[in-house]
Predict the structure.
Amino acid sequence: MNSTVYVGLGSNEGDREAQLVSALEALSRIDAVAVLRCSALFESAPVGPPQPRYLNAVVELECSLPPQRLLCILQQIEKDLGRLPRDGRWGPRPIDLDILLWPGELVADPQLQVPHLELHKRRFALEPLAELAPDEEHPVLGLSVTQLLAQLAPQDVQRLEATWWPETPSPVTES
């Protein structure tokens, strides 16, 4: 059975846009996944210790995998793209892939929380998600993405023009 899944992408090391494009290409090569649409790119201030600014986006996937299997694949993509295990949370990284929302799925285990536990607090995730799924409801809070966004205090998040990233919200085709 295929499900729609929203995955957040972020990078604040190296060529950030190239990292996001590489992650998108890796996602498009997964047999049980189809990349449907991409949000625009957003630049945001980092959460946590001082570090470079992040470039963020959200992709809409059609997926026939269970959530834990998709998580394993996302973690392998991160590793393949140069993400190293680090001490502490919120450090700089070349790539970060997070399952943000999986309509119809609630997952609460030590390795994976869906919807993402911090989704409702993070403008850098909600802004791009709102481009793709403004009316999608957070299954725990019972509010749409647009409503969650409206409740947030201002945060340092700005939409950017892309160089290589696909235009929003057009379908992605494999090259």
About this structure: The chain has one domain: 3-160. DSSP finds four helices and eight strands in the chain. The CA atoms of residues 127 and 149 lie 7 Å apart. Residues 67-80 form the longest helix (14 residues).
